[in-house]
Amino acid sequence: MKYYGRICHNLESITTEKILKKIPGVMFQNRKYVCNQCTNKDQSLFMKYYCHHCHKMTVYCRYCINLGKVQSCKDIYVIESHHERTKGFYNLTFELSEQQLMASSKVCDAIIQYKNLLLYAVTGAGKTEMIFEGISKARQRGDNVAIVSPRVDVVKEVYLRLKEAFEDEDIDLMYEGQFAEFNSTFVVSTVHQLMRYENHFDVVIVDEVDAFPLEMDNQLMTTIRKASSKQSSHIYLTATPNQALRSLFKTSDIIQLPARYHKHPLPVPVFIYNKIKETKLNHKFLKTLKLQIEQGRKTFVFFHDIEYMKTVYAIYKYHFARIEFVSSIDELRHEKVKLLRENKIDIIFTTTILERGITLSNLDVIIVRSDMFTSSAIIQIAGRVGRKVKQPDGKVMCYHNGITKNMIRAKHEIIQMNNLAKQKGWLI
Ligand SMILES: [Zn+2]
Ligand SMILES: [Zn+2]
């Protein structure tokens, strides 16, 4: 492999690549420390210690430590970028919908002109397929392409789909613990891993940009900018764009994609006043869950708080044989998700970790205390339902202790997308 466009900590693996510059890992500039690997300037993230190699105090950056420690007493190397053209060939085993074709041509235009674009697409619109043609055009021109997401599970899934379509391309997959194998001409990675690059990518596609924690927005943009060539195109894909993201684009550069691939509308949340107590069995809730099983439906029950979920779970677990709970701190979560896919669980209590990624048929969701959720979380959760062509609908039940603005906003946005899809003639 070649280290084109990368920031290297030593020159051991460098062969024919050209070294652009040699700089200290951390420098002191305008009375502040600055990390030359990740551009971090937050002074609280720099640590000092006595270096026994140099016999003096050294400063290192904690923010990018899992990409390898960079410090003030050691130089890092920026390797020159490089461009390789390919045929950009890809397979597509099905036809794109009218909406996908429209989106695909917008993406191509933006890439060809090195412009930015925000694709605001409902869950289940088939976003990945909309970027194939654009990637192909970019690779034919020799552009370096990166597809990034904040989330490792999304990165792995997108990689598998791209690998299947672009079988002749050398695609690098990168996340923590998974390293590049090829020349970084076509990379699928977490946003974090993009910190390894400087001035290299001509096209950066950010998938599920809304999954990025808000407080890290600035770092996200800085990382992408630093990894990108002077002239580059950035495409953002999201189902729930926040105001900060929208404000970065002209209205004409925000493309709304309101229809799901199967052309059925999004399920609209139903608000149900129902307080779920931690101490007492709720008969309405129990009856609903029993009915779900009788009807052969699966149920995801979402909670905003792990402890609350566990206490409530303890009350209901005796009533069902195939019930489980899962959370982000659950060590068995991958096993539990596997059981779910294998159809061995009927009801799963969960925190928001299941809000993305998992697609099951016959699925309905209940959001307990939906008054505690943000509108984008409600939209993401509702987006789990009715994804399959054979099962395009389902229920989104929002239990609440009082309707909130966020709940209304979520419902309103879903109805608006459905209306827009209908107007465009993109629904059956
Ligand atoms: Zn750093
Ligand atoms: Zn040292």
Describe this structure in words.
Its EC number is 3.6.4.-. Helices cover 28% and strands 23% of the residues. With 428 residues, it is of the alpha/beta class. It folds into 3 domains: 7-79, no CATH class; 98-257, 3-Layer(aba) Sandwich (Rossmann fold); 270-423, P-loop containing nucleotide triphosphate hydrolases (Rossmann fold), CATH 3.40.50. The chain has a 7-stranded parallel sheet with strand order 10-11-9-12-13-8-14. α9 (333-341) links the parallel β17 (323-326) and β18 (347-350). The model has no long low-confidence stretch (mean pLDDT 93). The structure holds zinc ion (2 copies).
Largest sheet: 7 strands, parallel
Oligomer: single chain
Approximately how much beta-strand content do the residues carry? 15-25%
Please write the CATH class name of the largest domain. Alpha Beta
Query: Between the first and last Cα atoms, what is the distance in angstroms?
Result: 49 Å
Distinct compounds present? zinc ion
Number of strands: 20
Q: Work out the count of structural domains.
A: 3
The name of the CATH topology of the largest domain is Rossmann fold
Mean of pLDDT: 93
Give, in spatial order, the strands making up the sheet with the most strands: 10-11-9-12-13-8-14
Shape: globular
Q: Point out poorly predicted stretches.
A: none
The portion of residues assigned to helices is 25-40%
Q: Which structural class do you get from the secondary structure elements?
A: alpha/beta
